[in-house]
Structure prediction request, 163 residues.
Amino acid sequence: MTTNWTGPDLIYTTSNGTRIYVQKGGKSDFDFKVRYQEPGKNKRTPQHIHLIIDLYMKKVGNKELTMRLVDHLIKDVILKVRPSMENPPALQVFSPDHIWPFQDLDAYGEYSVEFLLVVGELIIIQEKTNYPYGTMTERLFRSFRDEKDIFSVVSTATFRGRK
Prediction:
């Protein structure tokens, strides 16, 4: 089934005005790319490595709370979202109530917890849409959570597949 959807479509706007979009990708009929635009800046495409580096910065500031956030991402997001069969995709588990338990982490790193939760979920939906049995994102967050050496975690975050 081929669709005519191309996007970009606004999915969410964070409390600081960062707009999170999706647009058509090329891997499947329901593939999409995640993009964001901070106020006054150009659009960017978030990648796994950006999220992991931010989590490392948050971990330095508050290790216990960062690990609870990663547990939330694994148990309440990665293990619950399903592939998307609609264009544009919709958030499946995110609720603004998920932000406040981790809000103190906003003092560390580049991204807000709100941003990480929304973008993280969209990236996970994207992976499950294109690779229903893929586990790269889950392995990445579990490696971070299990405190594997930084080289292994970063290597997983920057993996691009076979060429």
